[in-house]
Structure of Anaerobic ribonucleoside-triphosphate reductase activating protein:
Amino acid sequence: MGTGEILKISGIVDLSTIDYPKHASAIVFLSGCNMKCGYCQNYETITTNISEMTAEEVFNGMDLMFAESLVISGGEPTLQPEAVLELAKLAKEKGFPVKLDTNGTNPDLVEKLVLNNLINYIAIDVKAGFDNYEKITGYKKEIKEDILKIIDICKKAGVFVECRTTFIPELMDESDIGEIAKTVKNCDLYTIQQFDIEHAYDKEMEKLKPISEDELLSLGKLAKNYIENVKIKTLSSEIPII
């Protein structure tokens, strides 16, 4: 680490109040992804808008006056493991807690982050019921065991684990949510997110019928049968399931 490795960056946000709960955060979006989800809002950006810089250049270029944490996101940031390690190390040197957004395909990197005390919060995007993965993401490998391994590693180390699912009407149903909730039941928080039709990468998805808040609440209550802390996230609000 600290070798000045070149990072492929698709975006930097100096200040966000919504990406790390209870923290103002800076966000670095690493480019590239090993999935191709039609509903992705970032796909074009992460595959075409790429800058190359070192981790030091990333930090030197950010206005960190108000940020108090770092979120490493993507794309799928763990495709650039050394970049994630360098960013997390620099953040820790500044006293920043670190959150990683991931699709769960690189448990080995997560284990390295945990062992080196470089991570405080992980958010795993669990895309669908596990038989439905290839249809939703184009990802052909088995992923269930990788996600379970990440949850186990983090729980043992006291790293907060959020699992989250963007619910896609017509391509998913309540059986997806039931299967996911049963599988990731040991996570600290499960979030079911409303699909943002207007900003989907695949324009065919604009034809899908939007899911209502009531339908999301119903899915949240289903997940609550297996997981203590569940919330739904609409395009405008977050609602905990009581």
